[in-house]
Write a structure and sequence with these properties.
Structural class: alpha/beta
CATH architecture of the largest domain: 3-Layer(aba) Sandwich
Radius of gyration: 37 Å
Number of domains: 4
Distance between the termini: 84 Å
Strand content: 25-35%
Largest sheet: 8 strands, mixed
Number of strands: 32
Low-confidence stretches: 79-87, 656-666
Number of helices: 15
């Protein structure tokens, strides 16, 4: 319990005043024996026990009345966290703020978002109570620690403003843990403000086990969660994909796909206006939505044929979350999509070449060339977007070239060599060839369909990996993320984590001796085409990037193109949606796809992450800025009145009828 006027508690010894007065009153009267009254003393002893109890209760009520008055004047505070805080003042108070785009969901009547509501309530709480001698902020957009002078300063810092980023909640706790251990902190309070989005929390990650074990070793660390888990009642979000510029003689146009997602079920169907803006030229198209949303595939926008690059945006009318109502995009002339295939097996090389030489759109230009290992020096590293490597893992010079290729944003897929399995790259190395023991173990038992190369199609249908048959595969050891696995849990496809670009390892080959990749075709073709499209993005003069602290890394002279009223500081630019330009290079920064599709993690799973720790979750609603700490002085005033009334009742004189003996005297003769 905390107190707004703690000095008033110095007066607590005054509760002994009624006892002292009672003892003094007892010394005021001197006892004088009187024989005529001796018979009354015997009768008094019979009722002395009840009288003593009544006198004790009267004293107790007077003591409680004074104590209640003192507590009322000291203005005590309480909240849902009352049982954990106690009377001690923390040495460190840490505020972990989720600044992800989903935290900007608003209460339209109050005009407050989840983020602003959480900040105001937390600032009010910290100012009313005792926060630590150090007040530390960790925001989700930068992940950096910053010491703050006072709780009020949290409302005006750039690091607490809205952003289009996603959050890394486990990473924030890891940063807090590192700070507490490095500073040998005493009593600490950690306050997290979050909407519990699954993509931010990754509750299934093994990182949480290590975090929980580390915190369990620290004494006097208390965790508090301000949870804004309630979904929006009716919110729309918009995304743009597959932006392409096409030139036909003297005419040019942009082709793009628009997806509108709907959260909430207030209205079954309705039409919404979609605003398109390309280089400050606007147009509007109406889109009819169903319960899930709607889409426009292959929308065409005519542009000036001399406009070879530029920017645009797609917008929705205002609703509960302003940060997902506009999506920015950039465009430029599409490059030739070139693939280099390295293999000593002509049959395998031709299988890869056929799948990569045929573009999914006739307006694209694809070139795929096969190189044996003795002609690696002929590869056009600078203009290729994808490298297929089906040979022994390289070393020295070639390995360095591949590393640079990936660092520049391109994609490499490693397929198993027939013979030599030596060497290691990207912390991965090949093991022995395996033959599945039965048909069940050769089937693909699981794959990741929400993202990456094996994601579901635009219509939501999964790729037919269930139809894939594998006759031989080569096991490998890797630290990457598995995207698909067989029935015996052996990996089929793995993505290795890199700072830029992408690296994949596939455990089987497409030819009939090893799998049905070539025969079935669909999965093989889609997987390679997606990898090629991802790698060729680095070759264009325009790119789409997810908002993050390093979204604009690699170049320095960025100019803000849109929105024009952007007031973000240089250090915060990559965290806000918009269009940026560095000479001829364009970048559109937007929130990640996961921010639109993720739901709130179940509170039971979130609570389980803090099992065994001192933890309290406080469920709050967006727009509710009432104080987290309630003053209890009214309760103590009522308690004082009750004590005084009880004392008055007990002090009333008791009425008792006694059968006293009557003594009669006979008259004298």
């Amino acid at each position: 319990m905390n107190f707004l006027q703690p000095l008033t508690l110095i007066a607590l010894p005054l509760i002994l005043l009624p006892v002292i007065i009672h003892l003094i009153n007892q010394q005021r009267h001197r006892t004088v024996p009187w024989a005529a009254m001796m018979f009354l003393m015997t009768a008094k002893r019979m009722s002395k026990g009840m009288a003593r109890i009544r006198h004790i209760l009267i004293l107790l009520m007077r003591v409680l009345a004074i104590a209640a008055l003192i507590f009322a004047i000291s203005r005590p505070l309480s909240g849902g966290w009352l049982g954990s805080i106690g009377f001690a003042k923390p040495d460190i108070t840490m505020v972990l703020l989720d600044r992800s785009a989903s935290m900007e969901t608003q209460d339209l009547q109050a005009g407050e978002s989840k983020r602003s509501t959480a900040l105001k309530r937390l600032v009010d709480l910290l100012e009313q109570g005792d926060y630590g001698t150090q007040l530390i902020l960790i925001d989700s957009a930068t992940g950096e620690l910053q010491e703050v002078d006072s709780p009020q300063a949290l409302l005006s810092l750039p690091m607490t403003e809205a952003s289009a980023t996603s959050a890394n909640i486990p990473g924030m706790y890891e940063s807090a843990l590192t700070f507490l251990k490095a500073n040998n902190s005493g009593r600490a309070e950690i306050w997290l403000c979050s909407d519990l989005h699954e993509n931010d929390w990754t509750v299934g990650s093994g990182r949480w086990d290590a975090i929980r074990e580390e915190f369990a070793q620290l004494d006097n660390v208390h965790h508090f969660l301000l949870a804004y888990a309630a979904p929006s009642s009716n919110n729309l979000s918009v995304r743009v994909e597959n932006v392409q510029r096409w030139q036909r003689r003297n005419e040019a146009e942009l082709i793009l796909d628009v997806m509108v997602r709907r959260d909430g079920d207030n209205i079954a169907t309705r039409k919404v206006p979609i605003e398109f803006e390309v280089n400050n030229v606007r147009s509007v198209v109406e889109l009819e939505l169903d319960l899930l949303g709607g889409s426009i595939q292959g929308h065409s926008i005519p542009i000036d044929s001399t406009l070879t690059s530029g920017w645009g945006s797609v917008g929705l009318p205002g609703d509960a979350n302003p940060l997902d109502n506009r999506f920015f995009f950039v465009f430029s002339e599409p490059p030739v999509r070139k693939t280099a295939i390295v293999t000593d097996d002509a049959r395998t090389g031709e299988t890869f070449r056929r799948a990569l030489a045929i573009p999914p759109d006739a307006r694209l230009q694809h070139r795929a060339e096969v190189f044996p290992t003795n002609r690696i020096g002929e590869i056009d590293w600078e203009n290729s977007g994808l490298l297929i490597w089906q040979a022994a893992l390289p070393n020295e010079l070639v390995a360095e070239q591949i590393q640079n290729f990936v660092n520049s944003g391109r994609v490499v897929i490693f397929f198993p060599p027939h013979q030599n399995a030596g060497g290691q790259m990207f912390e991965t190395h090949w093991s022995d060839w395996q033959k599945p023991e039965d048909e069940q173990s050769s089937d693909v038992s699981w794959w990741r369909g929400d993202t990456d190369l094996l994601a579901h199609t635009d219509s939501g249908d999964p790729l037919p990996l269930n139809d894939l048959r594998t006759y031989q595969y080569r096991s490998y050891e890797s630290t990457g993320t598995t995207l698909a696995r067989f029935g015996d849990d052996s990996p089929l496809l793995t993505r290795v984590n890199t700072d830029s670009g992408a690296v994949y390892f596939c455990s089987t080959l497409p030819t009939a001796q090893f799998s049905s990749f070539e025969r079935d075709g669909v999965v093989f073709y889609v997987m390679l085409q997606r990898a090629l499209a991802e790698g060729c993005r680095a070759l264009t003069d325009a790119s789409q990037r997810d908002a993050a602290s390093d979204a604009l890394a690699g170049r320095e002279q960025w100019d803000v193109v849109a929105p024009k009223d952007s007031a973000a500081s240089l250090s915060q630019r990559g965290m806000h949606a918009g269009v940026y330009r560095d000479e001829t290079y364009w970048v559109a920064v937007n929130r990640s796809h996961a921010e639109d599709i993720a739901n709130a993690a179940p509170v039971e799973k979130v609570d389980a992450l803090f099992g065994g720790l001192s933890y309290r979750r406080i469920d709050v609603e967006v727009g509710d800025t009432s104080s987290l700490a309630n003053e209890l002085w009214r309760i103590f005033l009522i308690a004082m009145l009750v004590a005084l009334i009880v004392e008055a009742v007990l002090s009333l004189p008791s009425k008792r009828v006694e059968n006293n003996p009557v003594v009669e005297f006979a008259p004298a003769d």
